[in-house]
Amino acid sequence: MASFNHSFILSLLVAFYFINVSLAGRHLMDTPAAPPATAQPLPAVPPLPKVTLPPLPSVPAQPKTTLPPLPTQPTLPKPTLPPLPNPTTPAVPKVPGTPLPTIPIIPYLPTFPIPFLSPPPSN
Questions:
Q1: Which of 6, 39, 43, 95 is deepest in the core (most CB within 10 A)?
Q2: pTM, whole model, 2 decimals?
Q3: InterPro entries under this entry (predicted)?
């Protein structure tokens, strides 16, 4: 319950803060427009001196290294799997067929249209 009171007070403070900000914005809109600013000339920028850089040192040539040849991969024998056993499945005994019971006929019940649920008659 105490946290609710703190959050309620905090939300009120935030609301009052934004009310003051919106009122300040409204007062700023009510002020007359400022006169247009005159563009003042920019001061002249003196040219920068040209800097000469020393030449870059030359990169020494790297010695050419030769790599030894890769060893050849040995050939492996082709793997073979043993033959799978041929299991024999036992014979399924025949079940004597039993006739299915007949479905009883449902007697016809007359239906009466409900006036407010039926569609309106077509002309």
A1: 6
A2: 0.19
A3: PELPK1_2 (IPR044659)
Buried b (16+ CB within 10 A) or exposed e, 68-89: eeeeeeeeeeeeeeeeeeeeee
Round to whole Å and give the CA distance between 121 and 113: 12
User: Which residue in this structure is represented by tokens 């007070």?
Assistant: 9
CA-to-CA separations, 116 to 62, 63, 113, 122, in angstroms, rounded = 99, 101, 9, 15
Phi-psi region of 6 (alpha: psi -120 to 50; beta: other; left: phi over 0): alpha
pLDDT (tens digit, 9 = 90+) per residue, 53-111? 889 888 888 888 888 898 888 888 888 988 888 878 888 888 888 888 888 887 777 77
The pLDDT of residue 19 is 65
